[in-house]
Amino acid sequence: MIFTTTNNVEGYEVSEYIRVIAGETVTGINFLKDIGATFRSITGGRSAGYEEEAVRARETALNELWNRGQELGADAVIGINFDYSPMGANNDMLMVTATGTAVKLRHKQ
């Protein structure tokens, strides 16, 4: 299956728009990563713990999107977009959503 942030796929044309689909994941930031991030906010620099968690959450959301596209028999998901939202009473959770349009493709003639 082809994944793209664009609304078309080179060499193909959309033959059918199936529907908008999404993959979501919610992840928590553990206590040790939170302490490291607090220290980084004081001293400056990057928070590797938060970055790793964000990457892991994005990949999980993409895998969910892939599974939903497969279930619908899509050839591609186009126009993929990501949204990152803090959640929880103390904003200690991160929700990552990947959305796109599941489509059927055919080769351009």
UniProtKB/TrEMBL annotation:
InterPro entries: UPF0145_dom_sf, UPF0145_YbjQ-like. Gene3D superfamilies: Hypothetical protein apc22750. Chain B. Belongs to the UPF0145 family. PANTHER family: UPF0145 PROTEIN YBJQ (PTHR34068). HAMAP family: UPF0145. This is UPF0145 protein CPHO_00395.
